Amino acid sequence: MQNLEPSVKSRRPVQLLEAERPDRMEEACGVFAVLAAEQPVANLAYFGLYALQHRGQESAGIAVFNEGNVCLHKDMGLVSQVFDQDVLARMPGDLAIGHNRYSTTGSSRVCNAQPVVLMTRLGAFALAHNGNLVNAAELRRAVDDGQVEFTSTTDSELIAFAIQQAVERGLDWSLAISAALELCRGAFSLVIGTPIGLFAVRDGHGIRPLVFGRLGDPEFGHWVVSSESCGLEIIGAQYVDDVLPGELVLFQEGSQEPSRRRWTEQPNRLCVFEMIYFSRPDSRFFGESLYSYRQRIGQTLARESAVDADLVIGVPDSGIPAAIGFSQVSGIPYADGLIKNRYVGRTFIQPTQAMREAGIRVKLNPLPDVLSGKRIVVIDDSIVRGTTSRKLVVALREAGATEVHMRISSPPVTHPCFYGIDTDTQDQLIAARLTLKEIEEQLKVDSLAYLSKEGMVEAAKADSGHFCTACFDGDYPIPMDQEVLSSKLMLEPSGIAAG
């Protein structure tokens, strides 16, 4: 097994100060895989990860299988920072596993970058994971047989060790993966490269998305798996289906149809924030693009919380479709009042304290000639802590807005997420601590309104019971270990449990 180490190892992520963290749910992760003989699979994986860059900007990695060997390259940074053509040219093969990371279990360090690659009696395998286990401590105890050498602090590595140990007990790949999954509790969408082919897995509730498609003519048997459909489209693959909740799918070279089986049966609980914010607006859920859904929730928001104003603006990018929908129903003209610097990712160069105090605006800049003298309705997808929302309101007023009315295209976030989204502990969630009026006063807005949970769900082309809405109502679909609960539910009554 060859391990390629990039030449940027001295680069290390800077931990953001609390006041600099985004005032929204932070990213999940992106997984991507392609099985295509005689194709540049590393390059295809690169572009797939590029399309999924919005899901995680801390690290990126690709593992490529070539005649029994696995070549792995991963490091901190964006996909375009971690890979170049020289690196990709040294990674020939017919199966590639890729990952973009935003840390939810394990710190932001290169040792925690994915994919995870391990060796077994049947050969090497590579695993990439989107989600979060809620029994990671229990799983670590289960796999720590005294022989294991942990190289990371991620739950993803624990899943990989569980698979490795199942293979070493004599199980084949399919049975070993199934046995390992039985030990896992939480959210996980996985792509797993093995010597016999590519496996794709979703947890029983299907909390994180996962889709697959064909690349080229069906007779070639070329397959692609991606967190979202936008990862298929960027390389010209045709969407075939979602990996279903609780499904284990095996794609093999040259096969015109995958092998599919359900390893568990649970109620579907797709994370509703995938619909509202995380996934790209051009990705397709329930037969349509998320742009259409986000427009509809904006329309619903306008009906639920009308306001007298001159302009509707959206916070780029996820607030814009909802802002357009709000404008359509309210009759208030829509305008671009905020410009986003689209070339700012997770930078390793942080502003100085003096720059922060001077109000440096790295990502968003208001347009005074659009906003001056206007009563503004600003649409955003969520408020988590309220810190950057408050700064945004100040910037809009400095640009000349006479009134600022904030409308949020999701319900109040009152509970932390344990299933693969980095949210704060409950005492840091502004809607868990303050009343609506108190939040208005803290943000210094003229009015504030949230979308109702009923309006959010009814706008989707899916059954109302299809979604996980725990961040809005505390109804967690998967029970959690006490150590997980105590870290994020410190304000809840003692003994509370998910169910």
Describe this structure in words.
The chain is an alpha+beta fold and 499 residues long. The chain has 2 domains: 16-266, Aminohydrolase, N-terminal nucleophile (Ntn) domain (Glutamine Phosphoribosylpyrophosphate, subunit 1, domain 1), CATH 3.60.20.10; 289-342 and 360-488, Rossmann fold (3-Layer(aba) Sandwich), CATH 3.40.50. Helix content is 28%, strand content 24%. It contains 18 helices and 24 strands. The strands form 6 sheets. An 8-stranded mixed beta sheet has the order 1-4-3-5-2-11-10-12. The protein has a 6-stranded antiparallel beta sheet with strand order 6-7-8-9-13-14. It has a 4-stranded parallel beta sheet with strand order 18-21-22-23, sandwiched between helices. Strand 21 (375-380), helix 13 and strand 22 form a beta-alpha-beta unit. Helix 4 runs parallel beside helix 5 (155-168), helix 5 crosses helix 6 (173-181) and helix 9 (290-304) packs across helix 10.
